Amino acid sequence: MLQVKNIVKYYGNYKAVDNLSFEVKDGEIFGLLGENGAGKTTTFRIIMGLLEATEGEVLLDGKHIDYSITNKIGFVTEERSLLTKMTVKEQLIFYGVLKGMREKKIEQEMKYWLKEFQIESYENRKIKELSKGNQQKIQFISAVLHHPKLLILDEPFTGLDPINVELMKKAIYKLQKEGCSIIFSSHQMEHIENFCEKLIILVKGKPVVDGYVKDIKKEYKKKNIMIRGEDLPVAEIEKIKGVLSVTKEKDEYMVKIAEDSVAKKVFAKIKDKDITKYDVTEPTLNEIFIAKVGGIHD
Fewest CB atoms less than 10 Å from the CB: which of 14, 75, 181, 278? Predict the structure, then answer.
């Protein structure tokens, strides 16, 4: 289990991380979100022992993270961190040795993962000859060869097409089942919603949203109603107290409402119409993110 306890990080007078605390249990996927400059990268570096926190502490399985612990961590960075003149095999052996693995074990794991990602034939190809998507696969493999106890994923789907996104998801779930603690960061909110039960949203290094995704959505009272039908009284719906907006999306209308009770008033206006769809949905994580982060900027 990873424990981040009240960490604070200053760069001179600038506070990059402000009293951040969270836990990631074994086999749990945790979301760490925020705009660029929110403090995510600094937090990752503190967790990996690359930076020292000004205050607070980070523990992995109850131990302070130092060079004896970092071999249990894997990190997929948003930026490419591959040595492009090496072959795939040379690259993976290089990273595996750095993690304390024997070459025979590295080759065994390499063959398994190359097969999982459907790139067995790339073993002796140079990194620079690969597409961005296949380079991303190699970057992921290099981070998980040693079966890490903690895996940090920073925009792991960059450059991947939908088929390869599914392969990456399968690999992440496999590691989760092995008991790996995973921190997931992405600007693509649908991935966070699919993977993470818990999350934190950072603004200027400070948590502004913290908890289980289901509870965060429940506390955010605004809902959406998707309506499809003929001759809808749009102007009348817009006048209902608690209706925030009405917009048309292809052949449907999206009605944003302030809380659940407004849905009954909207339905009362359209119940006698020819309705083929009336669906009250929770807000997306993307909506909540924009509301929470945008509101602070305002």
Answer: 14
Specify the residue for token string 């083929």: 276
* CATH number listed for the domain at residues 221-282: 3.30.70.980
Phi-psi region of 263 (alpha: psi -120 to 50; beta: other; left: phi over 0): alpha
Which CATH class, in words, describes the domain spanning 2-213? alpha beta
Exposure letters 234-247 (e unless 16+ CB within 10 A, then b): eeebeeeeebeebe
pLDDT at position 297 is 43
Are 189 and 293 in contact by the 8 Å Cβ rule? The answer is no
Q: What is the C-alpha to C-alpha distance for residues 80 and 94, in angstroms, rounded to an integer?
A: 16
Sole residue written with tokens 């979301």: 31
Given a contact cutoff of 8 angstroms between Cβ atoms, the answer to whether 93 and 106 are in contact is yes
Is residue 296 scored above 70 in pLDDT? Answer: no
Q: What is the pTM assigned to this prediction? A: 0.84
Distance between CA 283 and CA 298 in Å, rounded?
21
**3-state class (DSSP) for residue 154:** strand
Maximum CA extent, the chain:
72
**What pLDDT, in 10s, does the model give residues 228-246?**
998 899 999 999 999 999 9
List the domain boundaries for the chain: 2-213, 221-282
The DSSP call for residue 70 is G
Beta-strand pair 73-76/63-64: unpaired
- Distance between CA 228 and CA 266 in Å, rounded? 13
What is the rounded distance in angstroms from the CA atom of residue 92 to the CA atom of residue 115? Answer: 14
